[in-house]
Design goal:
The complex is a heterodimer of chains A (222) and B (89).
Chain A lengths: L3 E6 L6 H10 L3 E6 L10 E4 L20 H10 L3 E5 L1 H8 L6 E3 L7 E9 L15 E8 L3 E3 L2 H9 L3 E5 L10 E5 L5 E4 L16 H11 L3
Parallel strand pairs in A: 1-2, 1-3, 3-4, 4-11
Antiparallel strand pairs in A: 5-8, 6-7, 6-9, 9-10, 10-11
Chain B lengths: L6 E11 L6 H12 L11 E10 L2 H16 L5 E9 L1
Antiparallel strand pairs in B: 1-2, 1-3
The chains are: A alpha/beta (222), B alpha+beta (89).
Chain lengths: 222, 89
């Protein structure tokens, strides 16, 4: 039976179809979940895709966090379900306190839309468990607020518990410790700024994103 | 006749980055000011301000109401702090 992945759509989300196509190419059963839905029954994994949920008003993710679906996402995560936030989805997970820290405006106040080389620095997350430690992946970034920040104690915990799953090889945005992606203590909730769904075919310039999405699927087998 | 005893208050909520948190917007403005001929500017930190009208039983209730909405939504306590002033509208 195919792994069933729910891709959450907030008003302003714009990467949901790319995510669905990439997941389907890997053999998953991917379906869109509306932000007003309050049930995630039947899903093996949940993706919060990129975009500008609720116009990014106030702060990216600040309003989306109060969407009805987010209570279900929190419960799903608490029960060990795999939850991945990509770009705007990462910002939503931080605002919802499912991941620590926050994403600030990029250093230099520039919107960045470019390929980024990231390194797998921990394989203890659902998104990286099938990858190789130290593996370099070419996955594009597309964000204005992607500079990860947290207090020193949180950073120490992230390092000690091997929760920094992806680091930029060349820091594009001023992120603390070159962080491109982190996970929660259990490794089942992951947030990352790069877009694996946009690196899903050699025709798009890179298929490296499939390493991450494939890992998510094998980690959440139905 | 029973009349409701709520009063309308005006809350001014200023949200700004905590000290020590990088503020690229403030830094850019700070660098631009001397170019415009404004000398003697020692530092600029950016922030935003929300004007909220709210109904509450008294000033104390209005203050705690404003503090709660600032903490839960207007500011992200991880990187921001808020300063709240409340007065009768």
């Amino acid at each position: 039976m195919a792994t069933t992945v729910g891709v959450v759509v907030f008003p302003g989300t714009n990467c949901e179809h790319d995510a669905v196509l990439a997941l389907e190419a890997l053999g998953a059963d991917a379906r869109l979940i509306f932000h007003a839905d309050v049930s995630l029954t039947g899903l093996d994994a949940v993706i919060l895709p990129g975009g500008f949920a609720h116009g990014d008003y106030l702060r990216p993710g600040a309003i989306a966090r109060f969407s009805p679906v987010m209570e279900a996402v929190s419960a799903f995560a608490r029960e060990g379900g795999a939850v991945v936030g990509i770009c705007n989805g990462f910002q939503v997970l931080c605002e919802a306190h499912l991941l620590p820290g926050a994403l600030q405006k990029n250093r230099g106040l520039t919107f960045l839309c470019e390929p980024a080389l990231v390194r797998v620095d921990s394989t203890r997350s659902v998104l990286t468990q099938s990858a190789t430690l130290g593996q370099l992946l070419d996955v594009p970034i597309n964000h204005f607020s992607g500079s990860y920040t947290c207090d020193l104690e949180t950073l120490r915990q992230l390092r000690d518990q091997e929760r920094i799953v992806l680091r930029y090889v060349e820091n594009p945005n001023g992120s603390v410790d070159d962080i491109a992606g982190i996970c929660n203590e259990a490794g089942n909730v992951v947030g990352l700024m790069p877009h694996p769904e946009r690196a899903s075919s050699a025709l798009l310039g890179s298929a490296d994103g499939l390493v991450l999405l494939g890992s998510l699927l094998s980690a959440s087998v139905a | 006749m029973v009349r409701s005893l709520v009063v309308r208050y005006h809350a001014r909520v200023e949200v700004r980055l905590r000290p020590g948190i990088a503020d690229p917007e403030g830094a850019t403005i700070e660098r631009a000011l001397p170019a415009l001929g404004f000398d003697g500017v020692a530092s600029v930190r950016s922030g935003r301000c929300f004007n909220v009208e709210l109904d509450a039983a008294d000033l104390e209730a209005a203050r705690s109401h404003a503090a709660e909405l600032a903490d839960r939504l207007l500011a992200n306590p991880v990187i921001e702090e808020s300063i709240i002033e409340v007065r009768e509208a």
